[in-house]
Each structure stands twice: as C-alpha cells, then as structure tokens.
C-alpha cells in the first residue's frame, strides 16, 4: 500500500486509490459495453428505464417528499441557528456570487432546454384531461413548476447541508462518506465509505452527462436554426469536444477565477434574455400567469407530491416526474457538494431558506416568462410552436424567440447562455468528482479535474451515440435509485449530528 501511495505521489496525483480506481473502472466498463453493443443499446436503455420507473416509482416519490419535509423541519427547528463552520465563521462569497453559483450549478442547461419545451409538451399531452385546451395549458404550467420547484431544491439542500456541516463543523473531509460519521464512526474510512463515495462519483457523472447531452442537442439546434449547420451526431460530438476544451480552461483558472466568474456571466446573460422576453412578449399576460401559476402550485402541492398515477396506469409519470426525481437525486452529490463548498459562514436556517426559496423563485419567474410566452404564441397567436416541438424538442426555445423582435441576436444570446452553462456545469462537476475521488481534498491537482472534464465529455458522447435521450435518462434513473437509499440514511445521520452540536 505504501508503494502504491508513493507511486501516486510521484505521478503528481492526490487520489483515494480505491474510490478513484473503481469509479474509473465502472465508468469505463459502461462506456466499453455500450460501444461494443451500440446497435442494441437503445432498446436496452429503454427496457431498463421502463422497469425501474414502474417498479420503483413509488420509492422515488416517497423519498423526495422525505427530503423536502426534512428540510422544512430543520428550518423551524432549534438547529436553525447553528452556523456552518462555527460561531465565528464568515461567508466567503457575497449573496450575488453565492446565488449565481447556486442557480448555475443546480439548474443551468436543463432549465434552458425545458423551459419552453416542457409546457408545450404538457399542453399537447397532459397527464389528465384533454390536450390543446385552456385546462391543459394550466396543467402544463402546474406540472412544470412542480418538476422544477421545491422538491428538487429540497434534495440539494439536504445533501449540501450534511456535507457542509460535517466538513466545516466537525473537520471531516468534504466528501459524501463524511455525512455518515454519526452512524458509522471510523468505518467511513473503510469499505462502506468507499462504496458510498464510488456511488456518489458515478451518480454525479451520469447526472451531469444527462445535462450535457441535453445542452449539446440544444446548441446544435440553435446553430442549425441560425446558420443552417446540420443536426447530427458528428456535429454534436464536435461541440462536446470543443466545449469540454473550454471547461478545461476554466478548470485551470480555478474556483474564484473560473467557476465564479462564469456563473456571474451566466446570470447576467440569463437576466438580459429574460428581461427582453418579458418586455417584448405578452407582458400583462405573463404577470397574470405568474400569479395564477403560483396559486395553482401552492394549492396543488401536497396532492401532486403524493400522486403516483395508481388509477391512471399510463406512462406519463414515468416519462416525466420519475425521470426528474431520479435526475435531481443523481445530480445531488454534485450540486450538494458544490453548494457546501461555497456556503461556509451561513446559519442552517439562512442556508436552507436561501437554497429552497431563492433559486425556486428565480426558476418560477424564468418558467413563466418563457413557458407562458410559448403558450400564448400557440394558443392566442397561432404561431405553430406545437409543430416545431413535435418535430424537434431541442429547437423549442429558438422557435419561440423567432416570434419576437431581434430574433437572430436573442437566439445567438440563447446559444451563448447554454454554452456558458455547459462549461460551468462541466467544470463544477469535475471539481466535485475530483474531490470525492481524492478522499475529500478540496484542492486536488488540476490535472485530475482535467481528467474528469474529459471523461464527462467522453461519456456524454457515448450515451448520445448509444441511445440518445433515452440513454441519458436511463443513466440518471439507474444511478439515482441507488443514491436515493444513501440519501435517506444521510437524513438520519445529519439529524443525529445536529443533535450533538452545541447550541449557543
């Protein structure tokens, strides 16, 4: 073992040999199997996704409700005044920088991809009722809010709080295994801890590749819409390679110069685009829609939270809600660890209120402006967005922008926004996976983050070639199932840890 560690040091690496080695073997094994069975993988992915969603859908729904309920409990509990990092800890980042990084890491590409497409999809084919109607339009926004609202951020909040608390208040490594110290004690450094971190690393990678795959499809669609560039696997592979190279540059620049500045740039571009659509679109309709959407969401939240489609027996929930819950869970090690890394100095209450409410409110505003504008163009102006979405979901945003002034420039801005989100997500996830596979070292060698950035791009390429969107969704659902079990134990462990913390 000493010789192995000496070799690692001589190579300029700082890794946990078991976690790093097995994570790489699992990922490379998956990539190799997919490439060797390329023609069959689409059917295999679809079968896996269908089986897990049908058999374990209820488990995802129950788990996600537990995570959100636990977050709300902690806000109102006596543990809310505990400060992450100790009583004298001060925040490292301003609120603007903190919220920018929260939003960029937590939603990013996926929100840009689905903000127009999802409401239109639900308008056409709602979970209940008749499509292409006023009622289906209301239902469309209700479910879009539901999928992107408190439940997603409740998952992130619990993972982030657990990691931040045990790293900054207990002095443990900033890695997933540390959150289980109250339950496992020193055993977190043994095989059980290795399994936890390996699961987290693999889940993070596949959760990320889902976003990267969606992002590159939308970039390709935008470039085709603007410049007539073909939409095919070859172009998308070239795009992934190019943007991975940009992410590598961001990796070299580091957290404050790379991710922080890119996140603030993301927010700036997103705000410009959002404000433009708000004022150039149906402004009064959007104001009315936002209020009604919020009211619908609030009045139906509990009912939707426990809806399992038990009596309908269709595939709608499997294709949408279960996919989202699994995606957020698979994404949570990345987002949670990243949020933990930037949240020292906040109280538990301040942290949870901020993570739950601020990004959710921003998400709802974004969804209303883009989603309701698309619905207005379809229902009132009859611009035919439904036909465009049916033909190619990735082009939905650009078709909506085409019906507004300065469409070429706003579409170009949309492509730039997706690219910057892409780079930020890749860089941030590289940092997180590197921290996990380095045993919790928050400043591992840059070469390791470059390795993970390249690996993420490679896996995204293989999934796109091997099965397209179905492959991306299957990767999230499969890894999310395993990690959901780990998160349930994490809730119990966090509560136990908070009980042991002195309350000043």
Provide an overview of this structure.
- The protein is mainly α.
- The protein has 18 helices and no strands.
Summarize the structure in short:
The chain starts with a helix and ends in a 5-residue tail after the last helix. It is mainly α.
Structural topology:
Elements: H1 2-10, H2 17-36, H3 38-76, H4 95-106, H5 109-124, H6 134-148, H7 150-168, H8 181-184, H9 191-227, H10 233-253, H11 255-280, H12 283-305, H13 316-341, H14 348-379, H15 385-391, H16 396-402, H17 407-437, H18 446-499
Work out the helix count: 18
CA radius of gyration is 22 Å
- The gross shape turns out to be globular
Q: Please state the oligomeric state of the protein chains shown.
A: single chain
Distance between the termini: 44 Å
Class inferred from helices and paired strands:
mainly alpha
Low-confidence stretches: 1-7
Report the order of strands and helices.
HHHHHHHHHHHHHHHHHH
Beta-strand residue fraction: under 5%
Could you describe the largest sheet, including whether it forms a barrel? Answer: none
How helix-rich are the residues, as a percent range? Answer: over 70%
Number of strands: 0
Give the mean pLDDT: 85
Descriptive terms for the model:
504 residues; disordered N terminus; mainly alpha
């Amino acid at each position: 073992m000493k010789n192995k560690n000496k070799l690692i040091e001589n190579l300029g690496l700082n890794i946990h040999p078991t976690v790093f080695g097995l994570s790489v073997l699992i990922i490379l094994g998956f990539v190799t199997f997919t490439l060797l069975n390329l023609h069959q993988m689409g059917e295999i992915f679809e079968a896996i996704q269908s089986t897990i969603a049908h058999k374990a859908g209820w488990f995802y729904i129950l788990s996600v409700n537990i995570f959100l309920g636990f977050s709300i409990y902690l806000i109102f509990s006596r543990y809310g005044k505990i400060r992450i990092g100790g009583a004298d800890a001060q925040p490292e980042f301003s609120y603007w920088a903190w919220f920018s990084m929260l939003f960029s890491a937590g939603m990013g590409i996926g929100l840009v991809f689905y903000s127009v497409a999802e409401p239109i999809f639900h308008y056409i084919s709602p979970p209940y009722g008749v499509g292409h109607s006023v009622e289906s339009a209301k239902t469309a926004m209700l479910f879009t809010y539901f999928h992107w609202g408190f439940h997603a951020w409740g998952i992130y909040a619990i993972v982030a709080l657990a990691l931040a608390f045990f790293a900054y208040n207990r002095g443990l490594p900033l890695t997933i295994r540390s959150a289980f110290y109250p339950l496992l004690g020193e055993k977190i450094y043994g095989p059980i801890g290795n399994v936890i971190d390996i699961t987290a690393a693999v889940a993070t990678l596949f959760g990320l590749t889902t976003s990267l795959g969606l992002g590159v499809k939308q970039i390709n669609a935008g470039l085709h819409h603007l410049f007539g560039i073909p939409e095919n696997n070859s172009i998308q592979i070239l795009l992934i390679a190019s943007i991975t190279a940009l992410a590598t540059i961001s990796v070299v620049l580091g957290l404050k110069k790379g991710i922080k500045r890119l996140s603030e740039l993301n927010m700036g571009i997103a705000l410009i685009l959002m404000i433009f659509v708000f004022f150039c679109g149906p402004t009064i309709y959007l104001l009315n829609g936002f209020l009604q959407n919020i009211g619908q969401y609030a009045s139906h939240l509990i009912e939707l939270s426990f809806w399992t489609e038990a009596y309908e027996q269709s595939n709608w929930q499997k294709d949408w809600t279960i996919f989202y819950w699994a995606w957020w869970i698979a994404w949570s090690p990345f987002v949670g660890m990243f949020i933990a890394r930037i949240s020292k100095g906040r109280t538990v209450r301040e942290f949870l209120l901020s993570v739950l409410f601020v990004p959710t409110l921003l998400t709802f505003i974004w969804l209303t402006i883009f989603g309701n504008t698309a619905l207005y163009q379809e229902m009132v102006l009859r611009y035919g967005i439904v036909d465009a979405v049916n033909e190619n979901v990735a082009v939905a945003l650009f078709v909506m922008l085409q019906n507004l002034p300065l469409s070429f420039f706003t579409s170009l801005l949309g492509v730039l926004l997706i690219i910057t989100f892409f780079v930020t997500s890749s860089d941030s996830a590289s940092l997180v996976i590197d921290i996990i596979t380095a045993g919790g070292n928050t400043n591992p060698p840059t070469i390791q983050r470059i390795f993970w950035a390249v690996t993420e791009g490679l896996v995204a390429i293989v999934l796109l070639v091997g099965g397209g969107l179905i492959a991306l969704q299957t990767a999230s659902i499969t890894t999310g199932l395993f990690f959901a079990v780990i998160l349930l134990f994490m809730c119990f462990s966090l509560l136990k840890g908070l009980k042991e913390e002195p309350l000043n």
